[in-house]
Amino acid sequence: QVQLIQSGPGLVKPSETLSLTCTVSGGSMTSNNYHWDWIRQSPEKGLEWIGAINFSGTTYYNPSLKSPVTISVDTSKNQFSLHLSSVTATDTAVYYCARRQISVAGNWFDPWGQGTLVTVSS
Amino acid sequence: DIQVTQSPSSLSASVGDRVTITCRASQYINNYINWYQQKPGKAPKVLIYGASNLQNGVPSRFSGSGSGTDFTLTINSLQPEDVATYFCQQSFSTYTFGQGTKLEI
Question: For residues B47 and B54, is the Cβ–Cβ distance under 8 A?
């Protein structure tokens, strides 16, 4: 049973970089059937897709995001990471990592990490 | 971006009731809609993928239907543990979520 375990700080200062890591436990990242995604949730914007990476390092980002985003992968550690730079208070949210299943029936997110509340404040 | 609009935003029902939640996409999305359940303080959990396919381990009282732009999540014989917020999510073009339906008993 694959589990995603998130780590990273819960408080980031404005204009600094938000960095979170997701460790994949109980399975391999090296499959063409999955991408590895970041999603955030706030009362103002609801659930918002941030971006994704596959095991070979190809990235996909939400063009609507205002803060610059970088997602990276380290398959030797079974980890992928999110870096959101120049954050503002509007980036305050619960951040989730998730595995996205790729199928002829569409794409869906399962499982999800436990979530990390990140607050942007000085 | 494709918008997905859920209704209602909240509802109250009784144990044993049949509950229906709808999701409308702003354009054609074939059957690329998924439904999630989120309980307080927890991550969302997928219930239905591809509009009508029940995820492994999800009780059979949950079902999904629809195609094109209009979709429905149905809970037959509502149980106390079904209290949660439900979201739809489209995957026709990138990924967007509905605003959620809060279900109370």
Answer: yes
The first and second tokens of residue B99, run together, are 């605003």
For range B58-81, the mean pLDDT: 97
Say if CB A114 and CB A5 are below 8 A apart.
Answer: yes
Residue A111 contacts by C-beta under 8 Å, 6 or more apart in sequence? Answer: A2, A3, A4, A98, A99, B43
Question: How far is the alpha carbon of A105 from chain B, nearest alpha carbon, in Å?
Answer: 5
**pLDDT, tens digit (0-9, with 9 covering 90-100), for B4-50:** 999 999 999 999 999 999 999 999 999 999 999 999 999 999 999 99
pLDDT digits (tens, 9 = 90+) for A78-112: 999 999 999 999 999 999 999 999 999 999 999 99
- Residues contacting residue B27 through CB under 8 Å, at least 6 positions apart: B2, B69
| Beta carbons of B91 and A107 less than 8 Å apart | yes
Q: How far is CA B76 from CA A118, B9, B20, B59, B80, in A?
A: 37, 19, 9, 10, 12
Inter-chain CB pairs, A–B, below 8 Å: 62
Question: CA of B11 to nearest chain A CA: how many angstroms apart?
Answer: 18
Give the model confidence (pLDDT) of A21-72 as tens digits: 999 999 999 999 999 999 999 999 999 999 999 999 999 999 988 889 999 9
Residue to substitute from B95, B101, B102, interface A, most A β-carbons within 10 A:
B95
d(C-alpha A96, C-alpha A28), whole Å:
19
